[in-house]
């Protein structure tokens, strides 16, 4: 049997609430030369019996004791046969043309290590929230990744050239809440990135999402920054304060905004400024300032209503542009 072009790795831990929909979105891809490796990471649900009823020979179930998300991804990497490896979390969904456009992008950019897509955020029921992660970042991106951090935004967007893992290693199981960024930084240190500028990944946010574990995420992101600078060249060390300023603002400050606490958000914004004063000219800092003012003027509910409206307008404009 010829090897598939793409290996799709889906880690699953008690994920049957969403896994059938997730797999269906893969099987509906317009690009068909792939295998699907579902990594059963110690689940106690009915995943084994469900998988036994799948008739598509491209789909394989690999069961193991629980090793966490990074451990499951690493198992998928070990078993993958494809030239490219795509990761898909068990609660996320792909648009039908995602793999086709990413493989085409690799063909147009043969030196690229990663091709990612824009992402549309959806709620627990798959309904769009009106928020889109739409980065323009491509090429040599190590420094910008370190400073902006949420460029790729989730683990279901990227497709990685298999030989990248031979060069940089696999996912770090000690960074449960920030292993994605750590991996992208390691790859970006050696390979250029490319992006498909369409929201082809539907990134689901719900109450049990790992991204909601904010304190663990903050600690792991700090570890990623320190790890990145351990191997950074001297001319890149100037980015250290920028990275910490960005971390403080994108985590502590914006989390305070999400909770409607303008006073705490302002405190963390000032801490970011003290780390790197030029951050005040960034779009993210300006948006944060506006959010703090709106909360102070209209309260948390008024600000949330305004944010929902602006996200809906942004999504409408973006869809027209596409």
Describe the SSE topology.
Layout: E1 6-12, H1 19-27, E2 34-41, H2 47-52, E3 59-64, H3 68-79, E4 84-87, E5 93-94, H4 98-108, E6 114-122, E7 128-133, H5 142-148, E8 159-161, H6 162-168, H7 179-188, E9 193-204, H8 214-230, H9 239-258, H10 262-275, H11 283-321
Parallel strand pairs: 1-2, 1-4, 2-3, 6-9
Antiparallel strand pairs: 4-8, 5-9, 6-7, 6-8
In whole angstroms, how far apart are the ends? 39 Å
Cα-atom radius of gyration: 20 Å
Strand content: 15-25%
Total DSSP E strands:
9
Q: In terms of structural class, how would the helical and strand content be classed?
A: alpha/beta
Morphology call:
globular
Low-confidence stretches: none
Q: Kindly report the average pLDDT value.
A: 93
Q: What's the helix count? A: 11
Strand count, sense and barrel status of the largest sheet are:
9 strands, mixed
Question: How would you spell out the order of helices and strands?
Answer: EHEHEHEEHEEHEHHEHHHH
Q: Residue share in helices? A: 40-55%
Descriptive account of the structure:
Strand 2 (34-41), helix 2 and strand 3 form a beta-alpha-beta unit. The radius of gyration is 20 Å and the shape is globular. It is α/β, with parallel strands linked by helices. Strands 1, 2, 3, 4, 5, 6, 7, 8 and 9 form a 9-stranded mixed beta sheet that branches. The chain has helices spanning 19-27, 47-52, 68-79, 98-108, 142-148, 162-168, 179-188, 214-230, 239-258, 262-275, 283-321, and strands spanning 6-12, 34-41, 59-64, 84-87, 93-94, 114-122, 128-133, 159-161, 193-204. The protein has 11 helices and 9 strands. Helix 5 runs parallel beside helix 9 and helix 8 packs antiparallel against helix 9. The longest helix has 39 residues, at 283-321.
